[in-house]
Amino acid sequence: MTRLTALNPEEATGKTKELFNAVQAKLGVIPNMMRTMGNSPAILEGYLNLSGALSHGKLSAKTGELLALAISESNSCDYCLAAHTFIGEKLAKATPEVLHAARKGNSTDAKTNAILQFAKTLISKNGIVNDEDVNKVKNAGVSDAEISEIVGHVALNILTNYFNNTANTEIDFPTVPSLEFQK
């Protein structure tokens, strides 16, 4: 059962209604996560702004989806695992094998692997990385701008993971079992 209410877009007012209208215009639907974030227009707007900014960064949309999966798996966020598996497959055109590997922080592409591993390191070390961690990702050809964006993606996905885990948001994408239960 959900712990926070997903707002009905038809009943939204003010800033929330404005944000819902923008999401509807862009996506054609307002996912439950955003409907629930709408309880606080500040949170919804912050999420949309950071997500939008990162979509114009150096890292590709596909890499962003792979990062989201690695981060969501680390934080046991079923909602985000479902959403980003769906988006990764349908929009980023990643294969199920690529998506599955990303959840573990792995990729057959060396640079993408380094990006995913660095994100996992950031999470496991609560952001307190050292010179060796940064040099390892740089030695894989990841630029300072890309490293900065990895940090941004980690922050964005921690926000959504923690939000959905707190709200127990109703999943409105095809569900994806946690890797914990696939052993």
Outline the structure in words.
This protein is mainly α. Helix content is 64%, strand content 0%. Helix 4 (61-74) crosses helix 6 and helix 4 runs parallel beside helix 7. The mean pLDDT is 96.
Record the SSE blueprint.
Layout: H1 14-27, H2 32-37, H3 41-54, H4 61-74, H5 78-90, H6 96-103, H7 110-124, H8 131-139, H9 144-167
Helix pairs in contact: 3-9, 4-5, 4-6, 4-7, 4-9, 7-8, 7-9
Quick structural overview:
With 183 residues, the chain is an all-alpha fold. The chain has 2 domains: 44 residues, no CATH class; 122 residues, AhpD-like. It is built from 9 helices and no strands.
Notable traits:
single chain; AhpD-like; 2 domains; mainly alpha; 183 residues; 64% helix; globular; 9 helices
User: How large, in whole angstroms, is the Cα Rg?
Assistant: 16 Å
CATH superfamily of the largest domain: AhpD-like
Task: Compute the separation of the termini in Å.
Answer: 26 Å
Strand tally is 0
List the helices and strands in order. Answer: HHHHHHHHH
Helix content: 55-70%
Query: In the CATH hierarchy, what is the architecture of the largest domain at level 2?
Result: Up-down Bundle
Sum up the overall morphology in one term: globular
